[in-house]
Amino acid sequence: MVAFIGTVGTTSGRARSVRPQRCPTRQRRVLVKAEFFDAWSRRCIPEPNLRKVVDALQNVAIELAEQIGAAPITKIQGHAAGMNASGDSQKELDVIANHAFKRACEASGCVSVMASEEDEQPVEIPSTIGPGDVGIPSYVVCFDPLDGSRNIESSIPTGSIFGIYAYRPDLGVEANVLQPGINQVAAGYILFSSATQMVLTTGSGAHIFTVDWQTRRFVCTSESIHMPKRGQVYSLNDARYFDWPKGLQDYIDTIRQGKGENAGKKYSARYVCSLVADFHRTLYTGGWAGNPRSHLRLVYEANPLAFIAEQAHGRGSDGKRRILEIQPAALHQRLPLFLGSSDDLNELEKYDVQQKDGSYDV
């Protein structure tokens, strides 16, 4: 790696050449016990059509990481692009990400229905798998193409979220999307940050993959991550404290003072306002991340992340119920969401923590 090439000034005012030098901190690049994603998927996802779908989505991750990383240069990070089906303002990168996910689903040849947070209705795809192909599985993919896009202008971490279900030809298009989260056969999210990482589960643990930019491929960097049973960090918008129900105020006051069930530990707040980023930290450190208001979408955000949380030995709750057991009633249904350590969520659910709808904006 070249540290500097060019000329520098001298005391005589004459420029002198500087030889290219190797960065003194450079170390030999070694991938220790790292397995490329394609090899991992062949080993760990035995169903070939599901493997094709997941492979297509990890390619989207690399494509979007490059576009997001270049956004300050291309000047598209702050461009408004109207409103989405959920009534949220869109950035141009929301639209770009949405198109990228749709193209990937179509190109896989194994997706029969796709549903995006950005679109009003799901889309049925003329799959290469026909009704007569008995026993050949096809899939339903639900996704939030770019979570936290309002943070893009300041280069704060963002992400993408997806959940995958087995397609059921006996159900209609919308009914295939409105399956309870427990029916997911795979789920994942992509974190666009200092590293581009994909966290994926196919029902056998939660695994972390990181892009190696020298090869432009994901490598497996953590298999079967285990979220701590408790943490000392909670993640939600503390500025809205006075809008919360008394139960949530009491719970937060209790854990901040070290008077909760966690052996006298005082909790701290860490809040990015990017759900993927806040949950990703929680996956490592424990504690919880959430929103007490009916703000987050059951189909596109809550179900996939709750599935990952459970596969990492954590939990997903709306403050009262297990997320994965909730039967969706609408494509863009919203609900309170809390994701994190099992013991922390067990304690949280002893309080009345759900915010009334529409009381404030995040």
Question: What's the arrangement of secondary structure elements?
Answer:
Layout: E1 6-8, E2 16-18, E3 35-36, H1 37-44, H2 48-74, E4 80-83, E5 89-91, H3 92-108, E6 111-116, E7 123-124, E8 139-147, E9 158-166, H4 173-177, E10 184-192, E11 196-201, E12 206-212, E13 217-222, E14 233-235, H5 246-256, E15 268-269, H6 275-285, E16 288-297, H7 298-311, E17 314-317, E18 334-341, H8 342-348
Parallel strand pairs: 6-8, 14-15, 14-16
Antiparallel strand pairs: 1-2, 3-13, 4-5, 6-7, 8-9, 9-10, 10-11, 11-12, 12-13, 16-18, 17-18
Helix pairs in contact: 1-2, 2-3
Structural account:
The protein is built from eight helices and 18 strands. It is of the alpha+beta class. It has two domains: 35-222, Fructose-1,6-Bisphosphatase, subunit A, domain 1 (Fructose-1,6-Bisphosphatase, Chain A, domain 1), CATH 3.30.540; 233-348, D-Maltodextrin-Binding Protein, domain 2 (3-Layer(aba) Sandwich). A nine-stranded mixed sheet has the order 3-13-12-11-10-9-8-6-7, with helices on both faces. Strands 15-14-16-18-17 form a five-stranded mixed sheet. It starts with 5 loop residues before the first strand and ends in a 14-residue tail after the last helix.
CATH class of the largest domain: Alpha Beta
Q: Radius of gyration from the CA trace?
A: 22 Å
Q: Mind summarizing the main beta sheet?
A: 9 strands, mixed
Give the spatial strand order of the biggest sheet: 3-13-12-11-10-9-8-6-7
**Alpha carbon gap, first and last residue:** 44 Å
Number of strands: 18
CATH architecture of the largest domain: 2-Layer Sandwich
Helix-strand sequence: EEEHHEEHEEEEHEEEEEHEHEHEEH
The residue-averaged pLDDT reads: 88
The tally of structural domains comes to: 2
The unreliable regions are 1-28
The structure class reads alpha+beta
- SS field, number of helical segments: 8
CATH homologous superfamily assignment of the largest domain: Fructose-1,6-Bisphosphatase, subunit A, domain 1
Pfam families: FBPase (PF00316), FBPase_C (PF18913)
Organism: Porphyridium purpureum
EC number: 3.1.3.11
Domain Fructose-1-6-bisphosphatase class I N-terminal: 49-222
